[in-house]
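1st attempt posting a full record on here, be nice pls
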Amino acid sequence: GSSSLNLQNNLSVISNVTFNGGLLNLNNNTLDLANTGSFIGESEASRAFTTGTGYIQATGMLNHPSSVNLGNLGAMITSNANFGTTVIRRGHAIQMGVSGSHNSIRRFYDIIPAINMNLKAVLRFHYFDAELNGIPEASLHQWKSNDNTNWDFVGADARDLAANYVEKKSINKFDRW
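the predicted structure (as tokens):
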């Protein structure tokens, strides 16, 4: 239904988090999927979120990834490069100062590969309509920051308003997106 489960502590999951209804509020906690966990059935009506500092993270070995979506968190990566062990963190805090004085949608990814240079990667950044924060989907672009304060415009090579993603090609290094 419309109920909300509020995470009170950090939580490690070794299998799946299955969404059948309601919301999972991370609060200020970490939900760690490690290298075996995954989100199943997350949707517009049944998903993880937070108004705090909480995030979800998944870890995996990315060697020439082809449409890999670690933990099913919505950051789909393709590349001919070897990233080594990679951590993907998905948070929902609004990022300040993106696009001049504007703010971001209610989703970001920290992508932390062991090898973070010359990646020539494609990032398909998925989101939910509830995370748009009043920003029109047709104007969504990718932005990146290496200090979580100053933002660089990256743009978009493709976007799909029905499938809720913005895609960028030829990414050589990952930071916060």
